[in-house]
Amino acid sequence: MASLLIKNGRVVTADSDAVCDILVEGETIAAIGKNLPVQADETIDATGKIIVPGGIDPHVHLDMPFMGTFSSDTHETGTRAALHGGTTTAIDFVLQKQGHSLREALTEWQGRATGTAVGDYSFHMAVTDFNPSTKEEIKDMVAEGITSFKTFMAYKGALMIDDAQMVGLMQEVRRHGGLVTAHATNGDMIDTLIAQHRAAGKLTPRYHYLSQPEVTEAEASGRFADIANYTGVNSYIVHLTCEGALNQVRRATERNQRVFVETCIQYLLLDASLYGDDFEGAKWVMSPPLREPKDQQTLWAGINQGLVQVVGTDHCPFMWEQKRMGADDFSKIPNGHPAIEHRMELLFSEGVNKGRISLQKFVEVSSTNSAKIFGMFPRKGTISIGADADLVLIDPEKKHTISAETHHMNVDYSGYEGWELTGKIETVLLRGQVAVDAGETKVGRGYGQFIKRGPVNY
Ligand code: DUC
Ligand code: ZN
Ligand code: ZN
Ligand code: ZN
Protein backbone atom coordinates (compact mmCIF):
# COMPACT_ATOMS: atom_id res chain seq x y z
CA MET A 1 0.00 0.00 0.00
CA ALA A 2 1.38 3.42 -0.95
CA SER A 3 2.25 5.67 1.97
CA LEU A 4 2.59 9.42 2.21
CA LEU A 5 3.90 11.47 5.11
CA ILE A 6 2.79 15.09 5.48
CA LYS A 7 5.19 16.79 7.86
CA ASN A 8 4.91 19.78 10.16
CA GLY A 9 1.57 21.24 9.10
CA ARG A 10 -0.74 23.08 11.48
CA VAL A 11 -3.49 20.48 11.57
CA VAL A 12 -6.87 21.99 12.42
CA THR A 13 -10.10 20.10 13.02
CA ALA A 14 -13.36 21.20 14.64
CA ASP A 15 -11.90 20.35 18.04
CA SER A 16 -8.11 20.39 17.77
CA ASP A 17 -5.28 22.57 16.52
CA ALA A 18 -1.65 21.41 16.63
CA VAL A 19 1.49 21.27 14.48
CA CYS A 20 2.08 17.61 13.67
CA ASP A 21 2.63 14.96 11.01
CA ILE A 22 -0.01 12.91 9.21
CA LEU A 23 0.73 9.46 7.80
CA VAL A 24 -1.51 8.35 4.96
CA GLU A 25 -1.63 4.71 3.92
CA GLY A 26 -3.71 3.91 0.87
CA GLU A 27 -6.90 5.95 1.02
CA THR A 28 -7.01 6.64 4.74
CA ILE A 29 -5.15 8.26 7.61
CA ALA A 30 -2.95 5.76 9.47
CA ALA A 31 -1.27 7.93 12.11
CA ILE A 32 -1.17 11.48 13.43
CA GLY A 33 1.48 12.79 15.80
CA LYS A 34 4.48 15.00 16.40
CA ASN A 35 7.65 13.86 14.58
CA LEU A 36 6.21 10.49 13.56
CA PRO A 37 9.15 8.06 13.44
CA VAL A 38 8.21 6.56 10.07
CA GLN A 39 9.47 6.38 6.52
CA ALA A 40 6.98 6.76 3.70
CA ASP A 41 7.07 6.35 -0.08
CA GLU A 42 6.58 10.10 -0.41
CA THR A 43 6.87 13.10 1.90
CA ILE A 44 5.24 16.53 1.71
CA ASP A 45 6.74 19.33 3.79
CA ALA A 46 3.78 21.34 5.10
CA THR A 47 5.75 23.77 7.26
CA GLY A 48 3.83 27.05 7.45
CA LYS A 49 0.68 25.53 5.98
CA ILE A 50 -2.69 25.03 7.63
CA ILE A 51 -4.19 21.58 7.04
CA VAL A 52 -7.96 21.18 7.28
CA PRO A 53 -10.35 18.34 6.43
CA GLY A 54 -11.50 18.19 2.81
CA GLY A 55 -14.37 20.59 2.28
CA ILE A 56 -17.92 19.33 1.87
CA ASP A 57 -20.34 21.38 -0.19
CA PRO A 58 -23.76 19.93 0.58
CA HIS A 59 -25.61 22.04 -1.99
CA VAL A 60 -24.68 21.82 -5.66
CA HIS A 61 -26.62 21.43 -8.90
CA LEU A 62 -24.51 19.74 -11.57
CA ASP A 63 -25.79 19.08 -15.09
CA MET A 64 -29.29 19.79 -13.86
CA PRO A 65 -32.26 20.33 -16.17
CA PHE A 66 -33.80 23.61 -15.01
CA MET A 67 -35.82 26.49 -16.52
CA GLY A 68 -35.52 25.12 -20.04
CA THR A 69 -31.78 24.48 -19.99
CA PHE A 70 -29.07 22.59 -18.03
CA SER A 71 -26.67 23.98 -15.42
CA SER A 72 -23.35 24.28 -17.23
CA ASP A 73 -21.02 22.29 -14.96
CA THR A 74 -21.15 18.54 -15.43
CA HIS A 75 -20.25 16.13 -12.65
CA GLU A 76 -16.80 16.06 -14.21
CA THR A 77 -16.16 19.80 -14.54
CA GLY A 78 -17.99 20.73 -11.35
CA THR A 79 -16.23 18.27 -9.06
CA ARG A 80 -12.86 19.09 -10.65
CA ALA A 81 -13.40 22.79 -9.97
CA ALA A 82 -14.51 21.86 -6.44
CA LEU A 83 -11.21 20.05 -5.84
CA HIS A 84 -9.25 23.13 -6.91
CA GLY A 85 -11.04 24.99 -4.16
CA GLY A 86 -10.54 22.34 -1.48
CA THR A 87 -14.00 20.79 -1.70
CA THR A 88 -13.44 17.06 -1.91
CA THR A 89 -17.08 15.96 -1.55
CA ALA A 90 -20.16 17.59 -3.05
CA ILE A 91 -23.78 16.60 -2.53
CA ASP A 92 -25.82 17.04 -5.68
CA PHE A 93 -29.61 17.11 -6.03
CA VAL A 94 -31.52 14.42 -7.91
CA LEU A 95 -34.83 15.93 -9.05
CA GLN A 96 -37.87 13.68 -9.26
CA LYS A 97 -40.05 14.61 -12.25
CA GLN A 98 -43.63 15.16 -11.18
CA GLY A 99 -45.67 12.11 -12.23
CA HIS A 100 -42.57 9.91 -12.26
CA SER A 101 -40.75 7.79 -9.69
CA LEU A 102 -37.77 8.58 -7.50
CA ARG A 103 -36.01 5.56 -8.99
CA GLU A 104 -36.24 6.92 -12.54
CA ALA A 105 -34.66 10.18 -11.43
CA LEU A 106 -31.91 8.42 -9.50
CA THR A 107 -31.06 6.24 -12.49
CA GLU A 108 -30.85 9.32 -14.69
CA TRP A 109 -28.47 11.13 -12.29
CA GLN A 110 -26.35 8.02 -11.75
CA GLY A 111 -26.01 7.84 -15.53
CA ARG A 112 -24.51 11.33 -15.59
CA ALA A 113 -22.25 11.09 -12.51
CA THR A 114 -20.98 7.51 -12.44
CA GLY A 115 -17.55 7.22 -13.97
CA THR A 116 -17.36 10.95 -14.75
CA ALA A 117 -17.04 12.71 -11.37
CA VAL A 118 -13.47 13.66 -10.45
CA GLY A 119 -14.23 14.41 -6.79
CA ASP A 120 -16.38 12.40 -4.37
CA TYR A 121 -20.09 13.06 -4.47
CA SER A 122 -23.37 12.00 -3.01
CA PHE A 123 -27.01 12.70 -3.75
CA HIS A 124 -29.96 14.25 -2.02
CA MET A 125 -33.34 13.16 -3.40
CA ALA A 126 -35.65 16.06 -4.23
CA VAL A 127 -39.21 14.82 -3.79
CA THR A 128 -41.36 16.95 -6.05
CA ASP A 129 -44.42 14.69 -6.08
CA PHE A 130 -45.20 12.86 -2.85
CA ASN A 131 -47.92 10.26 -3.42
CA PRO A 132 -48.62 6.66 -2.34
CA SER A 133 -46.05 5.22 -4.72
CA THR A 134 -43.33 7.75 -3.86
CA LYS A 135 -43.99 6.94 -0.23
CA GLU A 136 -43.01 3.34 -0.85
CA GLU A 137 -39.70 4.43 -2.38
CA ILE A 138 -38.40 6.38 0.63
CA LYS A 139 -37.04 3.30 2.37
CA ASP A 140 -35.36 2.17 -0.87
CA MET A 141 -33.51 5.49 -1.14
CA VAL A 142 -32.36 5.27 2.48
CA ALA A 143 -31.07 1.76 1.74
CA GLU A 144 -29.03 3.20 -1.16
CA GLY A 145 -27.38 5.70 1.17
CA ILE A 146 -29.58 8.62 0.15
CA THR A 147 -30.83 9.71 3.54
CA SER A 148 -31.77 13.35 2.88
CA PHE A 149 -34.94 14.41 1.07
CA LYS A 150 -35.20 17.88 -0.41
CA THR A 151 -38.45 19.76 -0.78
CA PHE A 152 -39.25 22.91 -2.70
CA MET A 153 -41.87 25.20 -1.20
CA ALA A 154 -41.65 27.30 -4.40
CA TYR A 155 -41.46 26.70 -8.19
CA LYS A 156 -45.11 25.62 -8.47
CA GLY A 157 -45.91 23.32 -11.37
CA ALA A 158 -42.35 22.02 -11.62
CA LEU A 159 -40.84 21.33 -8.20
CA MET A 160 -43.13 22.61 -5.45
CA ILE A 161 -44.98 20.33 -3.05
CA ASP A 162 -47.88 21.55 -0.92
CA ASP A 163 -48.22 21.29 2.85
CA ALA A 164 -50.28 18.09 2.63
CA GLN A 165 -47.43 16.40 0.79
CA MET A 166 -44.94 17.93 3.21
CA VAL A 167 -46.66 16.35 6.21
CA GLY A 168 -46.81 12.94 4.52
CA LEU A 169 -43.20 13.07 3.40
CA MET A 170 -41.94 14.14 6.82
CA GLN A 171 -43.85 11.34 8.52
CA GLU A 172 -42.44 8.75 6.14
CA VAL A 173 -38.87 10.07 6.27
CA ARG A 174 -39.01 10.11 10.04
CA ARG A 175 -40.06 6.45 10.03
CA HIS A 176 -36.90 5.61 8.10
CA GLY A 177 -34.49 7.79 10.06
CA GLY A 178 -33.83 10.37 7.36
CA LEU A 179 -33.66 14.15 7.10
CA VAL A 180 -36.02 16.52 5.27
CA THR A 181 -34.55 19.69 3.78
CA ALA A 182 -36.36 22.65 2.27
CA HIS A 183 -35.99 25.46 -0.17
CA ALA A 184 -38.16 27.48 2.16
CA THR A 185 -39.82 30.32 0.29
CA ASN A 186 -43.54 30.95 -0.26
CA GLY A 187 -44.04 30.00 -3.92
CA ASP A 188 -47.56 31.35 -4.28
CA MET A 189 -46.59 34.78 -2.96
CA ILE A 190 -43.54 34.90 -5.21
CA ASP A 191 -45.52 33.84 -8.29
CA THR A 192 -48.05 36.58 -7.58
CA LEU A 193 -45.38 39.26 -7.25
CA ILE A 194 -43.65 38.06 -10.42
CA ALA A 195 -46.95 38.28 -12.32
CA GLN A 196 -47.62 41.78 -10.97
CA HIS A 197 -44.17 43.02 -11.97
CA ARG A 198 -44.43 41.54 -15.44
CA ALA A 199 -47.92 43.01 -15.95
CA ALA A 200 -46.51 46.43 -15.03
CA GLY A 201 -43.67 46.03 -17.55
CA LYS A 202 -41.06 45.78 -14.79
CA LEU A 203 -38.76 43.26 -16.41
CA THR A 204 -35.14 43.91 -15.36
CA PRO A 205 -33.18 41.57 -13.01
CA ARG A 206 -33.87 43.92 -10.09
CA TYR A 207 -37.51 42.72 -10.16
CA HIS A 208 -36.34 39.19 -9.55
CA TYR A 209 -35.10 40.49 -6.22
CA LEU A 210 -38.24 42.55 -5.56
CA SER A 211 -40.43 39.49 -6.27
CA GLN A 212 -38.87 37.56 -3.36
CA PRO A 213 -38.93 39.89 -0.36
CA GLU A 214 -37.73 38.71 3.03
CA VAL A 215 -41.25 37.85 4.20
CA THR A 216 -41.56 35.14 1.53
CA GLU A 217 -38.62 33.35 3.09
CA ALA A 218 -39.44 34.05 6.72
CA GLU A 219 -43.01 32.78 6.32
CA ALA A 220 -42.00 29.52 4.64
CA SER A 221 -39.11 28.92 7.05
CA GLY A 222 -41.46 29.24 10.01
CA ARG A 223 -44.05 26.98 8.37
CA PHE A 224 -41.42 24.36 7.55
CA ALA A 225 -40.08 24.44 11.11
CA ASP A 226 -43.60 24.14 12.53
CA ILE A 227 -44.52 21.13 10.40
CA ALA A 228 -41.17 19.51 11.17
CA ASN A 229 -41.75 20.08 14.87
CA TYR A 230 -45.19 18.47 14.66
CA THR A 231 -43.91 15.41 12.77
CA GLY A 232 -40.68 15.12 14.76
CA VAL A 233 -38.51 14.69 11.67
CA ASN A 234 -34.89 15.88 11.41
CA SER A 235 -35.06 19.12 9.45
CA TYR A 236 -32.67 21.41 7.57
CA ILE A 237 -33.26 24.68 5.75
CA VAL A 238 -31.09 25.12 2.66
CA HIS A 239 -29.68 28.48 1.53
CA LEU A 240 -31.13 30.59 4.32
CA THR A 241 -30.41 34.23 3.51
CA CYS A 242 -32.03 36.64 5.93
CA GLU A 243 -32.78 37.86 9.41
CA GLY A 244 -36.53 37.14 9.21
CA ALA A 245 -35.93 33.50 8.34
CA LEU A 246 -33.23 33.03 10.96
CA ASN A 247 -35.55 34.50 13.57
CA GLN A 248 -38.00 31.69 12.80
CA VAL A 249 -35.25 29.18 13.53
CA ARG A 250 -34.37 31.02 16.73
CA ARG A 251 -38.03 30.78 17.73
CA ALA A 252 -37.96 27.02 17.06
CA THR A 253 -34.97 26.62 19.39
CA GLU A 254 -37.04 28.16 22.16
CA ARG A 255 -39.28 25.07 22.17
CA ASN A 256 -36.09 22.96 22.12
CA GLN A 257 -36.49 22.08 18.45
CA ARG A 258 -33.38 21.64 16.34
CA VAL A 259 -33.62 22.93 12.77
CA PHE A 260 -30.31 22.76 10.93
CA VAL A 261 -29.46 25.81 8.85
CA GLU A 262 -27.28 26.21 5.80
CA THR A 263 -26.41 29.54 4.35
CA CYS A 264 -24.34 30.01 1.21
CA ILE A 265 -21.14 31.94 0.71
CA GLN A 266 -22.78 34.56 -1.54
CA TYR A 267 -25.33 35.52 1.13
CA LEU A 268 -22.49 36.26 3.53
CA LEU A 269 -20.46 38.33 1.08
CA LEU A 270 -22.67 39.89 -1.60
CA ASP A 271 -25.74 42.11 -1.30
CA ALA A 272 -28.72 43.29 -3.32
CA SER A 273 -27.02 46.51 -4.42
CA LEU A 274 -25.69 44.34 -7.28
CA TYR A 275 -29.18 44.34 -8.83
CA GLY A 276 -29.08 47.55 -10.83
CA ASP A 277 -31.38 48.40 -13.70
CA ASP A 278 -29.25 46.89 -16.45
CA PHE A 279 -28.84 43.22 -17.31
CA GLU A 280 -25.52 42.83 -15.44
CA GLY A 281 -27.52 41.87 -12.33
CA ALA A 282 -28.46 38.59 -14.08
CA LYS A 283 -25.11 37.23 -12.83
CA TRP A 284 -26.63 37.14 -9.36
CA VAL A 285 -30.15 36.08 -10.27
CA MET A 286 -30.58 33.17 -7.93
CA SER A 287 -33.30 32.08 -5.56
CA PRO A 288 -33.50 33.30 -2.90
CA PRO A 289 -31.89 36.54 -4.09
CA LEU A 290 -29.04 38.39 -2.42
CA ARG A 291 -30.23 40.41 0.58
CA GLU A 292 -29.16 43.44 2.60
CA PRO A 293 -26.06 44.22 4.69
CA LYS A 294 -28.10 43.73 7.89
CA ASP A 295 -28.84 40.17 6.76
CA GLN A 296 -25.15 39.46 6.17
CA GLN A 297 -24.47 40.58 9.71
CA THR A 298 -27.23 38.32 11.03
CA LEU A 299 -25.77 35.35 9.16
CA TRP A 300 -22.19 35.84 10.42
CA ALA A 301 -23.59 36.19 13.92
CA GLY A 302 -25.78 33.12 13.35
CA ILE A 303 -22.67 31.08 12.55
CA ASN A 304 -21.02 32.16 15.78
CA GLN A 305 -24.22 31.58 17.75
CA GLY A 306 -24.43 28.02 16.42
CA LEU A 307 -27.74 28.69 14.66
CA VAL A 308 -26.15 28.34 11.21
CA GLN A 309 -24.15 25.11 10.98
CA VAL A 310 -23.26 24.97 7.29
CA VAL A 311 -21.93 27.24 4.54
CA GLY A 312 -22.63 25.75 1.11
CA THR A 313 -22.92 27.34 -2.33
CA ASP A 314 -26.11 26.33 -4.19
CA HIS A 315 -23.64 26.15 -7.09
CA CYS A 316 -25.85 26.27 -10.19
CA PRO A 317 -23.89 27.88 -13.01
CA PHE A 318 -25.20 29.09 -16.35
CA MET A 319 -23.23 30.51 -19.25
CA TRP A 320 -23.91 34.15 -20.09
CA GLU A 321 -25.72 33.03 -23.23
CA GLN A 322 -28.05 30.97 -21.03
CA LYS A 323 -28.61 33.90 -18.70
CA ARG A 324 -29.60 35.91 -21.77
CA MET A 325 -32.70 33.72 -22.17
CA GLY A 326 -34.12 36.29 -19.75
CA ALA A 327 -32.73 39.41 -21.45
CA ASP A 328 -36.27 40.78 -21.89
CA ASP A 329 -37.89 39.23 -18.83
CA PHE A 330 -36.27 38.55 -15.46
CA SER A 331 -38.56 35.58 -14.85
CA LYS A 332 -36.87 33.69 -17.70
CA ILE A 333 -33.31 34.12 -16.41
CA PRO A 334 -32.09 30.69 -15.26
CA ASN A 335 -31.68 30.99 -11.48
CA GLY A 336 -28.25 30.20 -10.17
CA HIS A 337 -24.71 31.31 -9.52
CA PRO A 338 -21.27 29.64 -9.78
CA ALA A 339 -19.35 29.24 -6.50
CA ILE A 340 -18.27 25.64 -5.93
CA GLU A 341 -14.61 26.49 -6.56
CA HIS A 342 -14.31 29.51 -4.31
CA ARG A 343 -16.38 28.72 -1.22
CA MET A 344 -13.46 27.67 0.98
CA GLU A 345 -11.02 30.39 -0.09
CA LEU A 346 -13.68 33.09 0.19
CA LEU A 347 -14.69 31.89 3.63
CA PHE A 348 -11.08 31.67 4.75
CA SER A 349 -10.10 35.09 3.40
CA GLU A 350 -13.23 37.04 4.30
CA GLY A 351 -14.21 35.01 7.36
CA VAL A 352 -11.07 33.80 9.14
CA ASN A 353 -8.53 36.35 7.97
CA LYS A 354 -10.91 39.24 8.60
CA GLY A 355 -11.71 38.00 12.10
CA ARG A 356 -15.39 37.23 11.58
CA ILE A 357 -15.06 33.53 12.44
CA SER A 358 -12.37 31.39 14.04
CA LEU A 359 -10.35 28.81 12.15
CA GLN A 360 -12.23 26.07 13.95
CA LYS A 361 -15.62 27.54 12.97
CA PHE A 362 -14.30 27.59 9.43
CA VAL A 363 -13.64 23.84 9.63
CA GLU A 364 -17.03 23.19 11.21
CA VAL A 365 -19.10 25.09 8.66
CA SER A 366 -17.09 24.14 5.58
CA SER A 367 -16.77 20.44 6.35
CA THR A 368 -17.39 18.79 9.73
CA ASN A 369 -20.98 19.83 10.34
CA SER A 370 -22.08 18.71 6.87
CA ALA A 371 -20.39 15.35 7.43
CA LYS A 372 -22.28 14.93 10.70
CA ILE A 373 -25.66 16.20 9.55
CA PHE A 374 -25.58 14.24 6.31
CA GLY A 375 -24.32 10.98 7.79
CA MET A 376 -20.71 10.81 6.52
CA PHE A 377 -18.85 11.40 9.79
CA PRO A 378 -16.15 10.38 10.72
CA ARG A 379 -15.24 8.95 7.33
CA LYS A 380 -15.48 12.51 5.99
CA GLY A 381 -15.31 15.86 7.76
CA THR A 382 -12.37 15.33 10.08
CA ILE A 383 -8.71 14.39 10.32
CA SER A 384 -8.52 11.25 12.42
CA ILE A 385 -7.09 7.77 12.22
CA GLY A 386 -9.19 5.67 9.87
CA ALA A 387 -10.85 8.65 8.18
CA ASP A 388 -10.53 9.16 4.44
CA ALA A 389 -7.34 11.11 3.76
CA ASP A 390 -9.18 14.12 2.35
CA LEU A 391 -6.84 16.96 3.25
CA VAL A 392 -6.52 20.59 2.24
CA LEU A 393 -3.21 22.44 2.59
CA ILE A 394 -3.66 26.21 2.79
CA ASP A 395 -0.96 28.85 2.51
CA PRO A 396 -2.59 31.37 4.87
CA GLU A 397 -0.69 34.43 3.62
CA LYS A 398 -0.65 33.90 -0.12
CA LYS A 399 -2.68 36.40 -2.14
CA HIS A 400 -4.53 35.60 -5.34
CA THR A 401 -7.27 37.08 -7.49
CA ILE A 402 -10.48 35.43 -8.65
CA SER A 403 -11.22 35.57 -12.35
CA ALA A 404 -13.25 33.69 -14.94
CA GLU A 405 -10.02 33.61 -16.97
CA THR A 406 -8.40 31.29 -14.47
CA HIS A 407 -11.19 29.44 -12.70
CA HIS A 408 -11.97 25.79 -13.48
CA MET A 409 -15.76 25.98 -13.47
CA ASN A 410 -17.45 25.63 -16.85
CA VAL A 411 -18.94 29.10 -16.88
CA ASP A 412 -17.79 32.24 -18.68
CA TYR A 413 -18.14 34.79 -15.91
CA SER A 414 -17.44 35.01 -12.19
CA GLY A 415 -19.66 36.57 -9.56
CA TYR A 416 -16.42 37.60 -7.78
CA GLU A 417 -14.33 38.88 -10.71
CA GLY A 418 -11.27 40.75 -9.47
CA TRP A 419 -11.68 39.91 -5.78
CA GLU A 420 -8.28 39.69 -4.15
CA LEU A 421 -8.15 36.99 -1.49
CA THR A 422 -5.59 36.23 1.18
CA GLY A 423 -5.04 32.52 1.74
CA LYS A 424 -4.58 30.07 -1.12
CA ILE A 425 -5.36 26.38 -1.28
CA GLU A 426 -2.15 24.83 -2.57
CA THR A 427 -2.54 21.07 -2.28
CA VAL A 428 -5.63 18.89 -1.98
CA LEU A 429 -5.72 15.17 -1.23
CA LEU A 430 -8.75 13.03 -1.89
CA ARG A 431 -8.71 9.52 -0.43
CA GLY A 432 -4.95 9.59 -0.13
CA GLN A 433 -4.22 10.77 -3.67
CA VAL A 434 -2.85 14.21 -4.38
CA ALA A 435 -5.81 15.49 -6.40
CA VAL A 436 -4.63 19.08 -6.93
CA ASP A 437 -1.20 20.58 -6.46
CA ALA A 438 0.01 24.08 -7.38
CA GLY A 439 -2.96 24.62 -9.67
CA GLU A 440 -2.68 21.31 -11.51
CA THR A 441 -5.27 18.53 -11.41
CA LYS A 442 -3.63 15.19 -10.58
CA VAL A 443 -6.62 12.84 -10.69
CA GLY A 444 -8.79 12.14 -13.68
CA ARG A 445 -12.37 11.71 -14.81
CA GLY A 446 -13.99 8.90 -12.86
CA TYR A 447 -11.76 9.14 -9.77
CA GLY A 448 -14.71 10.48 -7.75
CA GLN A 449 -16.77 7.93 -5.86
CA PHE A 450 -20.39 7.91 -4.78
CA ILE A 451 -20.52 8.23 -0.99
CA LYS A 452 -23.28 6.25 0.68
CA ARG A 453 -24.62 8.12 3.68
CA GLY A 454 -26.21 7.10 6.97
CA PRO A 455 -28.47 8.86 9.48
CA VAL A 456 -27.83 12.26 11.07
CA ASN A 457 -24.89 11.98 13.47
CA TYR A 458 -24.69 15.49 14.92
N1 DUC B 1 -32.08 28.35 -6.68
C1 DUC B 1 -31.22 28.70 -7.61
O1 DUC B 1 -30.82 29.86 -7.65
N2 DUC B 1 -30.82 27.77 -8.50
C2 DUC B 1 -31.19 26.43 -8.45
C3 DUC B 1 -32.35 26.14 -7.64
C4 DUC B 1 -32.65 27.16 -6.63
O2 DUC B 1 -33.41 26.91 -5.73
ZN1 ZN C 1 -42.20 2.99 4.67
ZN1 ZN D 1 -33.23 26.32 -3.65
ZN1 ZN E 1 -30.25 24.71 -4.80
Automatic annotation (TrEMBL):
KW Iron (keyword) present: no
Domain annotation Amidohydrolase-related: ranges: 50-434
UniProt enzyme class: hydrolase
Metal-binding as UniProt keyword: yes
Modification after translation: Carbamylation allows a single lysine to coordinate two divalent metal cations.
SUPFAM superfamilies per record: Composite domain of metallo-dependent hydrolases (SSF51338), Metallo-dependent hydrolases (SSF51556)
GO MF terms held by the record: dihydropyrimidinase activity; metal ion binding
GO cellular component, one term: cytosol
Cofactors named for this entry: Zn(2+)
Sequence positions bearing N6-carboxylysine: 150
Alphabetically ordered keywords of this record: Hydrolase, Metal-binding
E.C. numbers: 3.5.2.2
Pfam annotation, one family: Amidohydro_1
Taxonomic superkingdom: Bacteria
Matches recorded under NCBIfam families: D-hydantoinase
Family according to the record: Belongs to the metallo-dependent hydrolases superfamily. Hydantoinase/dihydropyrimidinase family.
Protein name: Dihydropyrimidinase
Lineage: Bacteria, Pseudomonadati, Bacteroidota, Cytophagia, Cytophagales
